[in-house]
Amino acid sequence: MPVRFVSCVRLRKSRMEQQRGLLLFLGVQMLLMGALLYQSHHRRSFTSFLRSLIQDKPEDGEELPFLVQVSSVGIPYQDVYSNLSQIHPLDISDEDLPNCPIISPYINGPLKVLIPENLTMEQVVEKNPLVELGGQYRPPDCWTEQHTAVVVPYCGQGQQLQQLLFHLHPFLQRQQLHYAVYVVNQVNNSPFNRGKLRNVGFWEAMQEEDWDCVFFHDVNLLPEDDRNRYVCDVFPAHVSVAIDKFNYKLPYQGYLGGVFALRPIHYLRINGFPNTYWGWDQEDNEIAARVKLSGMLLSRPHLLFGRYHMLEEGQYPSHKQSPQSPGLLAPIRRRWWHDSMNSLSYRLLSKELQPLYTNLTVDISFSAPGAPGPG
Hints:
By secondary structure, the chain is of the alpha/beta class. Helices cover 30% and strands 17% of the residues.
């Protein structure tokens, strides 16, 4: 008995040493992989690699949350303009700028949504002196690898646009992004067509810059946490997952309204957005279906980070739709290659470089031959 007991103890110790050795080996391999990917400028690929190690692989079409930090307890809410006065251009050439850090030092977390009364566009311009004509911004003190276009479908909500620009510009500057804001202005008496305006905004933005990420942003949503980074991951992302109007939770499973982000390669894979939905929010379910049919997963940030304040004034969607029925995937599958970028038709009436955004005034009231018109 004593001999057997000692043998079992030795065997157990041997197995524990083997397990420790295996864990140590895996840890070293992860560090080496991280260093290799970092040197190759594939930081987001390393994030995806870590994600694959710490969670089970989702089924096709299942939503995938971002890999995020755990929210720190007791972080105070700050004004979105706090500490931005610390950003100053350096007296060196652009080629000599240091690389921006992986995590911006200006990110704090929860933000107060404080909109001044009787806000004017002149006041917004004065608060954002580093934003260039057309709504472009580059960090003046470091070189960033993050390039994001923000496309805002718009139909006459002037006050809401001012409030969005007042809040969104400093929010993005805190993240040390190279970004630009494109406002796609629909000017006709036809019903609002957000999907078609998104397609126009994407097409026009990509003519200007080789953006590696595009955020489609409703004009009435203001982000409440700057850890919700406006960069793209390896999957399309629904970003506005916790809106105050809906008690900071999704109205229904599968909801994709508000703020939606993807890479150009994702956009081509879903063939853009539908052009034939005239009216608020009717295209959200089809976008979800297109992501699923394309075989891609859907990312979402943590509910603590993807928080938004919804502006209440003006015309807004009801958000009372139900999820797309599986039985309706078949007709979407048949038409999605015929109702998108390859059927996009519009007339660009003007392109104006405003101090805080690029204004694209478009007439989208007519359709390609055979496509349904506004109803």
